[in-house]
Design a protein that fits this description.
This protein is an alpha+beta fold. 21% of the residues lie in helices and 34% in strands. It contains 3 helices and 6 strands. It has a 5-stranded mixed beta barrel with strand order 1-2-3-5-4. The radius of gyration is 22 Å and the shape is globular. It starts with 5 loop residues before the first helix and ends with a helix.
């Protein structure tokens, strides 16, 4: 009885073509992460040369959709004096409202940049500090790069710096 390798060769060739074709196909954006890429319009609104800092009290922590078509963000509503402000922190898939470490009533210091979205002023946070011991970091201070766009290795290095 003679065995032939043709079926295996065909299967191997098909697997190579399938892998090659998949590599050439345009990458599909994960709908859960839609709009949060480093070069997406939302992130281009953040200007690291116009950083501001203010102190406020957290009114609520919630989810919102920053711009039409984007996946949800974790945001804060805060009171600064007699003003109520909205602060965008990050995508929900990066940190949900229950994971950002602040809650209603907390006094916080927020650093970031203002942007206009849909005709409203919104503060895009780089960092939220609560007291002297807790900090939630959303962007790199030096250039505003969102932490959620870093590789796992870069993110681990950045978080290790924050723990120092």
């Amino acid at each position: 009885m003679r065995r032939t390798c043709i079926p295996w060769a065909v299967a191997a060739g098909a697997a190579v073509l399938l892998a090659f074709g998949a590599a050439l196909a345009p990458a599909q954006e994960d709908p859960a992460r839609k709009g949060w890429g480093r070069e997406d319009p939302y992130n281009k609104l953040y200007n690291p040369r116009e950083i501001e800092k203010f102190k406020a009290r957290v009114v609520r922590v919630f989810e919102t959709v920053p711009m039409p078509g984007m996946s949800p963000a974790t945001a804060l509503e805060v009171r600064e004096g007699n003003q109520t402000l909205v602060v965008h922190l990050c995508p929900v898939w990066f940190a949900s409202p229950g994971q950002v470490g602040v809650r209603p009533g907390d006094a916080v210091s927020i650093r970031g940049a203002w942007a206009e979205i849909g005709g409203k002023d919104v503060f895009l946070a780089a960092k939220v500090k609560k007291g002297d011991t807790y900090e939630f970091k959303a962007r790199l201070t030096r250039d505003g790069t969102p932490l959620w766009t870093l590789t796992p290795e870069e993110l681990a290095r950045e978080r290790a710096k924050s723990d120092d």
